[in-house]
């Protein structure tokens, strides 16, 4: 998505994509709202500072926010901080909260790829640009994520039944 990087374009991106970006970082961080808050705020603050040098705003914002979140998670692991505990779902996003249980089985890179591909609807190329990795690496992360989820749940239908707490016999058959 090519967007001019004027201050107005950044403000528009915040209104149109800020919540989606936040949910992506929230999922990536394993349900840590404070990390999502800080990373998204930092991404938009940096966009305002570097607006003249940004060619493609949305992937740039994802890349900066995900890198900020990844750095914070690395710092916490290094400092032996308290175990990562997901926050309660923000703004009633029950589907996201339920999917965090499944996403917790994945590595942060796999969570990012899954969220950006399936939820944010970014292309492989945009995900690679946003996460600072190659297209091949994104495809590998998506493949590994699907395999991990399939191994744990057996099928997408079984995972849906588990996450909603119900069992649909027709889906599981």
Question: How would you describe what is shown here?
Answer:
Helix 1 (about 5-30) packs antiparallel against helix 2, helix 1 (about 5-30) crosses helix 3 (about 55-80) and helix 5 crosses helix 7 (about 135-155). It contains nine helices and no strands. The longest helix has 22 residues, at about 5-30. It is mainly alpha-helical and about 170 residues long. The radius of gyration is 17 Å and the shape is globular. The chain has a single domain (about 5-170), classed as Butyryl-CoA Dehydrogenase, subunit A, domain 3 (Up-down Bundle), CATH 1.20.140.
Features:
Butyryl-CoA Dehydrogenase, subunit A, domain 3, disordered C terminus, 173 residues, 0% strand, single chain, 9 helices, mainly alpha
Average pLDDT, rounded to a whole number, is 77
Portion of residues within helices: over 70%
Task: Please identify, by name, the CATH architecture.
Answer: Up-down Bundle
Radius of gyration: 17 Å
End-to-end separation in angstroms reads 41 Å
**Overall number of structural domains:** 1
Strand content: under 5%
- Largest sheet entry: none
The total count of helices amounts to: 9
Envelope shape: globular
Unreliable stretches: 81-85, 88-92, 167-173
Number of E strands = 0
